[in-house]
Design goal:
Layout lengths: L1 E3 L10 E5 L4 H5 L2 H10 L4 E7 L3 H5 L6 E5 L4 H13 L5 E4 L4 H10 L3 E3 L4 H10 L10 H6 L20 H13 L7 E6 L11 H11 L5 E5 L6 H10 L4 E3 L6 H9 L3 E5 L2 H8 L4 E4 L16 E4 L23 H4 L3 H11 L6
Parallel strand pairs: 2-3, 2-5, 3-4, 5-6, 7-8, 7-10, 8-9, 10-11, 11-12
Antiparallel strand pairs: 1-6
Helix pairs in contact: 4-5, 8-11, 9-10, 9-14
């Protein structure tokens, strides 16, 4: 945690600003911190800055008073305009949960006391490049966020991330599901085959095989979720079993996707933003991890979830973000995870005594 400002008064934060521009999963993981801040300072005003496309995720959080958006296309001029608007609020403290160039520029322009997340980039680099683990402990990202406010007595509760979906959005999403006859089965499983980087994507043919195994249970229906960019992948899976698979890739907003996930009995995901979104609406999750590892802090947090990974590979991790291709060529971290392993993980997760 990096701090700037005068800290003679530890109990007088009445106006607070949180900065986290992106991305989906990172923003979802800020919600335990929002909750903890509001519990510590219940009378405070808490505002938030995010990229425009992520504003709906935070706008309905009961701990947030106002969400301001920043657009990358507006450049430095847009950042100046945003800072001018934010300075009027005279924040007592700014929590920079992004700690990149843009967020540092913004908090400098605000000239308010601030603290920023420690990103441990050097330790990540050494772990990836030399496979030497300097992490003395594995600290989940929500807890790294919370460390920016330890000096103020802020402590996380025992719950995980939470996304608040307004009832009208939920009802709209359900109508869309019903229009696809996607609510007529006893068991619905969400498959989320997308991810931002190749080395985080379980191969398409394995998703198709997984769908076939799940559909051996005649009471099961499968829903596919993802962004518009992932539509082609989802379409291929749907074409394999068109009568019992519904694809909502690119058809729903972020909040509608959250509502659709909430209507499912379980979700299978890659290491992706939808993994965190699913946990935030209390859906049991089986997540498939490839090139990344627990030490980076992005495993499902305090939720009903299981991670399937090949933890015996000497080449993991090969990146802390993701790669366009496997540097060794074998892609064993994901190729060696079988669909039957995922089916077993789902069955174990849904057993009545599993939680």
């Amino acid at each position: 945690m990096r701090l700037t400002g005068d800290y003679n008064c530890m109990n007088c934060l009445s106006r607070i600003l949180i900065i986290r521009f992106s991305s989906l999963g990172d923003i979802v993981l800020t919600t335990p911190f929002i909750r903890a801040l509001k519990q510590r300072f219940p009378s405070s005003t808490i505002d938030y800055v995010a990229k425009e496309e992520y504003v709906p995720l935070i706008a309905h959080d009961p701990g947030i008073d106002h969400v301001y958006f920043a657009r990358s296309c507006d450049g430095f001029k847009g950042l100046l305009a945003l800072a001018k608007k934010l300075r009027r609020a005279q924040y007592d403290h700014v929590f920079d949960l992004h700690n990149n160039l843009r967020s540092r520029m913004l908090r400098t322009l605000l000239a308010a006391p601030s603290s920023s997340i420690r990103k441990e980039n050097l330790k990540k680099f050494i772990l990836v490049s030399f496979h030497k683990n300097l992490f003395k402990e594995t600290v989940p990202v929500p807890e790294r966020y919370a460390r920016t406010a330890t000096v103020f007595g802020v402590r996380l509760d025992e719950s995980g991330p939470t996304i608040h979906v307004p009832s009208h959005v939920y009802q709209r999403a359900i109508r869309i599901l019903e229009s696809e006859q996607a609510r007529s089965s006893d068991r619905s499983i969400a498959l989320c085959p997308g991810a931002r980087h190749f080395t985080k994507k379980w191969p398409l043919e394995k998703w198709i095989e997984l769908a076939g195994l799940l559909l051996e249970n005649k009471d099961t229906r499968i829903h596919l979720f993802g962004s518009k960019d992932e539509s082609s992948c989802c379409d291929e899976i749907q074409r394999a079993y068109p009568d019992v698979i519904s694809s909502f890739c690119g058809k729903l907003s972020l909040l509608e996707t959250a509502a659709g996930l909430a209507d499912c009995d379980a979700a299978v995901t890659n290491d992706s933003g939808l993994m965190h979104l699913a946990t935030a609406v209390n859906v049991p999750v089986v997540s498939i991890f490839g090139s990344t590892v627990r030490e980076f802090g992005f495993f499902p947090y305090r939720s009903r979830a299981v991670v399937v990974e090949k933890d015996d590979l000497s080449c993991r991790p090969c990146t802390h973000i993701g790669r366009k291709r496997c540097p060794r060529g074998h892609f064993a971290c994901l190729n060696d995870i079988t669909p039957r392993t995922i089916v077993q993980a789902i069955d174990d997760l849904l057993k009545p005594d599993s939680h």
